[in-house]
Amino acid sequence: MADEVEVVITTNVTEVVIPDDTVVLPTVINDLTNVNTSNPQEDEFLRYNASSNKWVNEAVTFTSTVNGLSDTNLTNLANNQLLQYDSASGKWVNVAAAIQNVRVTETQTTSDIADNASADISFSNLGKSYSLYKITTSAASWVRIYSDTTARTNDASRVQTDDPSEGAGVIAEVIATGGTTFVVTPAIMGFIDSDQTTVPVKVTNLSGVTGAIAVTITALKMEE
Questions:
Q1: What CA–CA distance (Å, rounded) separates 217 from 88?
Q2: pTM of the model
């Protein structure tokens, strides 16, 4: 309840006394004419309500996650994604990061294969398109890199002395007389078809003994 007081104004002419029932000083915030609080609770805040032209009490809820914000819509989160603004929905959404050109080195090893026998291996880190820099073998072998698994299957009967047909899907091939590194100069552009997820490779053992052949490819990854 506001306190009622008597106010005395003194001038150099006379003394004016205002009756004590005409001045009311607020003692609580709800006494103010532009404040309307109702059942206030601990840690509530005052928020201005433009429709009523009053300050009202309101609880404030803080979110502890990005997706708790009203202008975000995150689904199927994965590592290294970014937030991108979608003007159609008016929200920030998660998207895969655009790949930066990065040099990658990946090694895959066949199972034990007999001399002159072949085995299939696949490389998962080169990307859908790449620039081929180096091919390293652990032993004498014939290594072929393909654009898709169908090309690898169709090429299985070709012998080393025959060149692949034009458009057969052979990206590159090397014949190593021992463990060695082939530096591809100039670099060769390679790719896999859109329905592929790994780079198909076939390895033929030329070492003269049964054993596993390790193949290392170094390339510039250009497309995820």
A1: 43
A2: 0.60
Using an 8 Å Cβ cutoff, are 118 and 108 in contact? no
The CATH fold assigned to 102-223 is Jelly Rolls (2.60.120)
Q: Where would I find the beta strands (DSSP E) of 100-198? A: 102-109, 118-123, 129-137, 141-146, 170-176, 180-191
CB-CB contact of 182 with 144 (8 Å)? no
Q: What is the pLDDT of residues 49-103, one digit of tens each?
A: 888 888 988 887 777 788 888 899 999 998 888 999 999 999 999 998 776 688 9
The count of other CB atoms within 10 Å of the CB of residue 202 is 21
Taking alpha carbons only, the member of 121, 109, 106, 128 closest to residue 152 is 121
Q: Token pair of 106, please? A: 């990946």
Q: In this structure, what token pair is assigned to residue 51?
A: 């429709």
Strand intervals (E) in the chain? 3-4, 7-10, 15-18, 24-25, 35-36, 45-49, 54-58, 72-73, 81-86, 91-96, 102-109, 118-123, 129-137, 141-146, 170-176, 180-191, 199-205, 214-223
SS3 105: strand
Q: Which two tokens stand for residue 207?
A: 């070492």
Q: CATH 2.60.120 in the chain, residues?
A: 102-223
Decide the pairing of beta strands 91-96 and 72-73.
parallel
User: How is residue 60 written in tokens?
Assistant: 């404030």
Q: What is the pLDDT of residues 7-37, one digit of tens each?
A: 555 555 555 555 656 566 778 888 888 988 8
Say which residue the tokens 């090309």 belong to: 151
Under 8 Å between Cβ of 113 and 211: yes
